[in-house]
């Protein structure tokens, strides 16, 4: 059966006890797919499309991905960091060029690339999600790339914004790394992090991706558990 390879950043990566209770979307995605589908999660904290490629993290994927597999490509958070030349990419320049490299890795091996727009940060003004720190230009670039290359796309950014609005200002803290003092001994107490996810948030957004696969239909929908179809 197929393997889902995942290239991305900390919102996707697999976490151990050192970063508990942080949880990546790729870490919990097996909850939504058939048990015979494997996941090979290459996502790494802090990486952009640029640093992921520069650190040769795309090469192991190319070496092992095979015909009929899937490559989920989920970046944006770190590509937008203008003060860090090791990670920053222009949204309609190097970012698009890098996305094409990821797509080509999959297609050269007769695998299926899927571009996934970045999950939204938890930033509220009153009861609405603010646009102050979102990923608009990178989302647009991903959509344009998907259209240009005829690649499947899941707009997690839009879906996660809607889920945040429904969840609300206070309840959504349960999805992100807000750590009350005295509760989590393996991490910084009192941390208020609106980017990285806890288990509940990772599951919520993995569910959005599953919904996106179902909407795509065909081979993408076939990855999902039967009772989700």
Describe this structure in words.
This protein is an alpha/beta fold and 229 residues long. 34% of the residues lie in helices and 16% in strands. The strands form 3 sheets. A 5-stranded parallel β-sheet has the order 2-1-3-4-7, sandwiched between helices. A two-stranded antiparallel sheet has the order 5-6. Strand 3, helix 4 (94-108) and strand 4 (112-116) form a beta-alpha-beta unit. Helix 4 packs across helix 5 and helix 6 crosses helix 7 (199-216). The protein is globular, with a radius of gyration of 17 Å. The model has no long low-confidence stretch (mean pLDDT 93).
Helix and strand layout, with pairings?
Elements: E1 3-8, H1 25-28, E2 38-41, H2 49-54, H3 59-64, E3 70-74, H4 94-108, E4 112-116, E5 124-125, E6 128-129, H5 136-149, E7 152-154, H6 156-167, E8 176-178, E9 192-197, H7 199-216, H8 218-221
Parallel strand pairs: 1-2, 1-3, 3-4, 4-7
Antiparallel strand pairs: 5-6, 8-9
Helix pairs in contact: 4-5, 6-7
Structure keywords:
single chain; 229 residues; alpha/beta; 5-stranded parallel beta sheet; two-stranded antiparallel ribbon
């Amino acid at each position: 059966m197929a393997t889902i390879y995942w290239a991305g950043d900390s919102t996707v990566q697999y976490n151990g006890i050192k970063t508990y209770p942080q949880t990546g979307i790729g870490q919990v995605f097996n909850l939504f797919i058939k048990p015979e589908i494997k996941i090979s999660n290459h996502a790494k904290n802090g990486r952009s499309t640029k640093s992921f490629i520069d650190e040769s993290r795309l090469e192991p994927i190319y070496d092992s991905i095979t015909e009929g597999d899937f490559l989920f490509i989920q970046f944006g958070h770190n590509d937008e960091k203008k003060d860090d030349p090791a990670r920053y990419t222009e949204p309609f320049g190097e970012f698009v060029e890098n996305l094409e490299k990821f797509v080509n890795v999959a297609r050269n091996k007769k695998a299926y690339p899927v571009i996934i727009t970045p999950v939204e940060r938890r930033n509220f003004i009153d009861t609405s999600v603010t646009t102050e720190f979102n990923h608009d230009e990178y989302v647009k670039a991903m959509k344009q790339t998907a259209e240009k290359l005829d690649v499947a796309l899941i707009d997690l950014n839009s879906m996660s914004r809607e889920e945040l609005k429904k969840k609300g200002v206070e309840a959504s803290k349960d999805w992100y790394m807000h750590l009350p003092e005295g509760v989590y001994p393996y991490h910084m107490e009192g941390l208020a992090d609106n980017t990285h996810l806890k288990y509940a948030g990772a599951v919520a957004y993995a569910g959005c991706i599953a919904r996106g696969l179902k909407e795509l239909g065909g081979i993408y929908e076939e990855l999902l558990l039967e009772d989700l179809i």
